[in-house]
Amino acid sequence: MAKPHSLPVQPVWRRHVQRGFTLIEMMISITIGLGILAGLVGVLATNSSNAKTNDRTSELLTNGRYALNSIRQELREAGFRAYTWAEPIVPAPLGLATADNECLEGGATQGDFVSNLRQGVWGSNDANPFSGTCIPNASYVANTDVLVVRRLAVTPATVLAANTVYFETTYEKGQVFRGTGLPTWATTAPIPVPLASFAVQIYVYYISPFTVSAAESPLVPALYRVALLPDGSMARELVASGIERMQVQYGQLTTALTTSYVDTFVCANCTSFNPGASTWDEVNSVRIWLLARNATPEPGYVNTTTYAMGSQPYTVNDNFRRQLFSSVVQLRN
Fold it and tell me: What is the mean pLDDT of the chain?
């Protein structure tokens, strides 16, 4: 009789035993994982820091370039009087009032500043001459320049508005007037040809210690301008935020046929409202420096730079990034 078949017995040494990580293996794995995680966190932190630095740099470049281009564009048209090169005829009273916020120095009367088209450019060095009128000292950064640009619109007006300040011009003469009533010489026969009315455009550039209001925190400086509006009044306009300082110099031709730059002119007729001949008539170019600053400080960054801005260097010691912009603009008129 055959013996029943039986399964072979597996030796103990061939049996498979399932085991977990040992404590040492687990600690090694955790250490490696933490090292990888720390490296990733470091990379992310570096990328975030670089991104913020790039954003700050982009902010500086955008604000600075826009501010500089805005001034350059106006300076290229400074002194434009359409058809005539003749000295403007002294106008009749323009009917401006104190509420119109005209920029007036001491000794000026209403209408003198707006009608002084003879001065295409005018500037004040490190001082605010309009503290009692259009630029209160609380809205002005001390020891920065003020720049005035006067010109006409590039195209003549087709319909005259009631309160707008215009300049009636022909080849022989020109005169400022306000509203719809033309100067007498422009309405009596024979009527000069060509004859057209151009709106007067005036901009007064300066640096404000704040962008929105003196209550903002932190204070962000800005380039502002006071502009002549179509209703005959003058009002503040924000040009670019983040502009901390402005310095301007004015070039005039010397006897050696080179251009010499000065901070301003001092003479009997060098006020912003005197329409008489002065050295301001001789300005052929303008040199500008604008210092742009970030809106917020950067942790870990220290700025101790001295910025060369004309005759007045500017030294800082804080945590703001800055960029200096400069340009020379040749006057065309």
Answer: 90
